[in-house]
Specification:
By secondary structure, the chain is mainly beta. The protein has helices spanning 7-10, 32-38, 127-130, 296-299, 333-345, and strands at 2-3, 18-23, 25-29, 42-48, 58-74, 77-87, 92-101, 103-109, 139-148, 151-159, 171-180, 183-190, 202-203, 209-213, 220-224, 230-233, 251-258, 263-269, 276-281, 293-294, 309-314, 318-323, 328-332. The protein has a domain at 2-109.
Length: 346
């Protein structure tokens, strides 16, 4: 989330959308006309107040129609006015709420998930302008890790020698070398700040061994270790630019495969966002389907207000997630299959 600006209200239309509130948080969906105009789909505001002041927070409102929303600065505070209407089970309930706070954090979202167009053309787009540094004399550091099965991974950084104790500073390209029995079977290239940690190989149900590696900040790349074949998926919208027509894609940080279902749980986040989990069909690793499903929408309600949650483990019939407080949540594999089928249709 980022700091609020008045233009977040004045430059967009909220009237006709939906709104929910609870304590210090307000969230909802923009009306269709705003989505058509700007691409914005959802919003979330978090109101921060002085912890020494008594504050009861906002009442709980669930998916009301948003009639009017204004935020004004007065006396060093923000004054929020919210008018909305809904049905309380017996009658129409119209509310006008006033709330004051010292600070507001906001996120206005355009896109959730991967786009379904692979823009990878056989070479990482930044390599041409940086490959001049991929020479022995520009090698800054090399780190090797044995990941088992006769496979080792070497991550090399090339560039100018750093003048401060940060290996990314001064380096211009990161090269991953994947060795089997001491021989290089594949290389990958990425920006130094986007290189990933070392991972365990994936033993797939098809009998092959795969390795997840980084080809950039966005997308996912897998190498079939025994053949050297690989598949790189870089989704359209790979830059973290909320003004981009195709929005922003989910950043995959780590993957967790279930051999019984061929499902892959992907831990990651949106740029500068909270940790969460997506799941995809991984039955065909070298041509995987990019239609991923977001687990947060299935497991957690908006009222839960979890900032982060993570993959915990696969069990026989379900996926287990763990939230920031350590509490576990589950969703069945059957439901995940249904969600994936719905995603492909939609």
């Amino acid at each position: 989330m980022r700091d609020f600006e008045i233009k977040d209200i004045t430059e967009h239309c909220y009237r006709g959308g939906t709104v929910s509130t609870l304590r210090d948080t307000m969230w909802g969906e923009f009306p269709a006309e705003e989505t058509d105009k700007s691409g914005l789909k959802t919003f979330r505001f978090v109101f921060r107040h002085d912890p020494d002041k008594e504050d009861e927070g906002l009442p709980m409102i669930d998916n009301y129609e948003l009639l009017e929303l204004s935020v004004k600065e007065f006396g060093g505070e923000y004054v929020i006015t919210l008018e909305c209407s809904g049905f309380d089970g017996e009658r129409t309930d119209r509310k006008i709420l006033y709330y004051c706070c010292e600070k507001i954090n906001v996120i206005l979202c355009r896109y959730k998930g991967f786009s379904y167009k692979n823009v990878y053309s056989g070479r990482e787009p930044f390599i041409n302008e940086r490959e001049q540094w991929y020479k022995p004399e520009y090698l800054i550091s090399a780190e090797e890790r044995d990941i088992g099965e006769g496979i080792s991974v070497v991550m090399e950084l090339y560039g100018e020698e750093p003048t401060i104790p940060d290996r990314n500073f001064g380096s211009y390209i990161a090269v991953g070398k994947y060795l089997k029995d001491g021989k290089v079977i594949c290389e990958s290239y990425t920006l130094p700040q986007h290189r990933m940690s070392f991972f365990d190989p994936i033993h797939h149900s098809n009998g092959h061994l795969y390795y997840h590696y980084s080809a950039g900040l966005y997308g996912a790349a897998f190498m079939e270790i025994d053949t050297g074949k690989r598949y790189v998926y870089v989704p359209e919208g790979y830059e973290h630019d909320y003004l981009s027509e195709c929005g922003e894609s989910f950043i995959v940080i780590s993957v967790h495969y279930d051999i019984d279902s061929d499902l892959l749980a992907c831990n990651g986040c949106y740029w500068a966002g909270s940790d969460e989990v997506f799941v995809m069909d991984f039955s065909d690793p070298l041509n995987f389907d990019p239609h991923m499903v977001r687990i947060e929408d299935e497991v957690f309600s908006d009222e839960d207000e979890y900032d982060d949650f993570f993959f915990a483990r696969w069990e026989k019939d379900c996926l287990i997630l763990k939230d920031y407080d350590g509490k576990e949540h589950s969703v069945t594999k059957a439901r995940l299959r249904e969600m994936l089928a719905e995603k492909r249709k939609g």
